[in-house]
Amino acid sequence: MDSNLKCPVCGCEHVYPDGALWMCPECAHEWNPAETAAESGEASAEIRDANGNVLADGDSVTVIKDLKIKGSSMVVKGGTKVKNIRLSDGGDGHDIACKIPGIGAMNLKSEFVRKA
């Protein structure tokens, strides 16, 4: 079984094969992973910033609004410049891994940054 396969509708990780299709026990969605991958193509591989610019590894970005850090009283201020980002799938929509000066390593959502 493919351990990275998730339901495209609800994101459930507990999917199972049923013949040629895969089933989701939570939402009862059936799909063929080969067809889903062909339909999505390269469009899903692009990560775009708040202005619609395509981001790449090593780019510099600027945070566009104050972001509270979960579990801390610290805040990433709007206008903070972050250098040398890495694109990743951090989960929960966080697709940028970076080090923020004065705060440390963290993940950001691309919708809250713009390319510098």
From TrEMBL:
Belongs to the YjdM family. This is Alkylphosphonate utilization protein. NCBIfam families: phnA. InterPro entries: YjdM, YjdM_C, YjdM_N. Residues 47-116 form the Protein YjdM C-terminal domain. Residues 6-32 form the Protein YjdM N-terminal domain.
